[in-house]
Specification:
Elements: E1 2-11, E2 14-24, E3 29-34, H1 40-47, E4 55-60, E5 63-64, H2 69-74, E6 76-79, H3 91-101, H4 106-119, H5 135-147, E7 153-157, H6 165-178, E8 183-187, H7 191-197, E9 200-205, E10 208-213, H8 215-221, E11 227-233, H9 238-246, E12 251-258, E13 263-270, H10 278-287, E14 291-298, H11 302-318
């Protein structure tokens, strides 16, 4: 439904996007992640037809965004981060206006408005002016307008911005429901939301795609570098225990941290390619009279994986 192939875009001497490729199929929710300046916003603007690419090709529902721009844009429901709307219009009035812009017939428009209002839980503000609404409600009005014409492709830029926890859960459910018959591209800085909502994640850094995989696959791929965490009460010098743990084959580094009441937390990082060393860590602690109350693998979340990818890109550029 969305196909981005070797797309590049420069502004003067600045290469904002360089040979970016990814696809979003029907029934998929794909998260586009990137720090400020990563090229994420430029990519979204090219997908939605606001900017032309310098090289490469983008198709939306089979329509080229350059040679068949109007047809491509007609297939997209777009929610911008700020959800711009006419503040002097009432919610229902604005949705009717958007429906007319989409070319919906009057009877179809009325049904579409009711469906969007119900889906986005806007019944209580349907006759209130948009300018009087909270930012969270304005965001939901923007989402209702984006889905009004039943587009096969949705591009959502920070769709849960300014929403409270209950609204976030509802919006997450709406996005998953909408994705059953659509392709959905979501841009967000809220990594836990991306992890819970998206089927795949495309991570961008310095204008390039650094990763394209399911969130679980990204996390599993970083499992090898995950630290072992052991909380124990030490009989004697905690530094000596940390040094002993560091001598275990397969352990690259150990750090200790005092907790309270004589308990300490040892964090041991594995050497590259090392096998599981939890049994050795427990045995070494027991042999020195330490009481272990917890021993676990500290699996990284999506945020840690994201930061590792961005930092590795920065190091590579600096080198």
């Amino acid at each position: 439904m969305i196909s981005v192939r070797s797309v590049s875009k420069s502004f003067g001497r600045v290469a904002a996007v360089h040979e970016v490729s990814f696809e979003v199929g029907r029934g998929e929710v794909v998260g586009l992640l990137g720090a400020n300046g990563a090229g994420k916003t430029t990519t979204i603007r090219m997908v939605t037809g606001f900017l032309p690419s310098d090289a490469g090709a983008i198709t939306v529902n089979g329509h080229d965004t350059m040679s068949d721009s109007l047809a491509a844009r007609a297939c997209i429901g777009y929610l911008a981060e700020s959800a711009p709307a006419y503040g002097e219009m009432a919610t229902e009035e604005y949705l009717d206006y958007r429906g007319r812009l989409y070319g919906l017939a009057r009877s179809t428009r009325r049904m579409a408005i009711e469906k969007s209002i119900s889906m986005c839980e806007l019944g209580e503000v349907r006759r209130r002016r948009i300018g009087q609404l909270s930012r969270g409600f304005r965001q939901r009005v923007g989402l209702a307008a984006a889905v009004l014409h039943e587009p096969p492709v949705l591009v959502l830029d920070e769709p849960t911005s300014a929403l409270d926890p209950r609204q976030i859960r509802h919006t997450r459910s709406v996005v998953r429901e909408l994705a059953r018959e659509r392709a959905v591209l979501v841009s967000s800085h809220i990594l836990p939301e991306v992890e819970q909502t998206c089927d795949r994640v495309v991570v961008m850094a310095r204008g390039r795609v650094r990763a394209d995989a399911k969130p679980g696959e990204l996390i599993h791929g970083s499992k090898e570098q995950a630290a072992y965490v052991m909380e124990c009460r030490v009989a004697g010098d905690a530094g000596a225990l940390a040094a002993a743990l560091g001598q275990i084959p397969g352990v690259a580094k150990v750090e200790k941290e005092s907790i309270a009441d004589g308990w300490v937390r040892m964090r041991a990082w594995p050497a590259s390619g090392a096998a599981d060393v939890r049994e050795q860590l427990a045995a070494a602690a027991a042999s020195r009279g330490a009481v272990v109350r917890e021993l676990r693998r500290e699996l990284p979340g999506l945020e840690r994986v994201f930061m590792d990818l961005v930092e590795s890109e920065d190091e590579g550029t600096a080198a």
